[in-house]
Amino acid sequence: MTLVLLPGFMTDPDLWADMLPRLAPLGPVLHGDLTRDSGIDAMARRVAAAAPERFALIGFSMGGYVAREIARLAPERVRALVLIATSARADTPAQARRKAAAVENVRRRGFSGLSRAAILGSVHPDRAGDAALIARIRAMGDRLGGDVFLRQAGEARTSDLDRLGAIACPTRVVAAAQDGLRSLDEAQELQAGIPGAALTVIEGSGHMLPMEAPDALAEAIVTWLRAQLSGASTIGS
């Protein structure tokens, strides 16, 4: 069964590099393209159009919003859904103001990469001195560039809390206990709103779970995904 991986804001396939050895035995891996569209709906339609007839979805952060939209758009095609470090909430007014200011700044001055403060806010405090990790995160943003930044940051994130109940496929929610960008409450809202969803909380990681804790994340999802893709029923386990 094909796995479709959906990255987060200003991240690219390197986000998943440390997990690929654990994911590859499950089936072919495709990386969904979230770089060419400005809204979640348009991103979801593009990914669905490029995906095979049946597939499993793994969505990280912004990619979790897209993954849920695909699960509602094509419920008969999505075999299983994994939502990592994400939320169903809309941008808060403060978040919307920060994004608007960042977009305006890039339009006026050009894109000079993700700031160190933004990168540090996305990882566990203990990783602040991890130069290799910080460099990898920065490099993803540099590769994507200003046009992608403007598309991904330029549209306000809306809530889908009232539509979570429409997701019918087996779903696993994974949260980082020390995530500075997404709270445990947000993960619990996803679990409560999606019928039969299970929740795993991983200690010792910030928001960038696939890069900070790839082994723990793989442990949380690979056995569960294998059961779903083999036809076993383990919803909520």
TrEMBL record:
Molecular function (Gene Ontology), one example: hydrolase activity
Keywords for the protein's UniProt record, in alphabetical order: Hydrolase
Domain AB hydrolase-1: 52-214
Alphabetized Pfam families for the sequence: Abhydrolase_1 (PF00561)
UniProt entry tagged with the keyword Magnesium: no
Domain of life: Bacteria
Matches recorded under InterPro entries: AB_hydrolase_1, AB_hydrolase_fold, AB_hydrolase_sf
Protein name per the record: Alpha/beta hydrolase
Organism: Methylobacterium brachiatum
Highest classification ranks of the organism: Bacteria, Pseudomonadati, Pseudomonadota, Alphaproteobacteria, Hyphomicrobiales
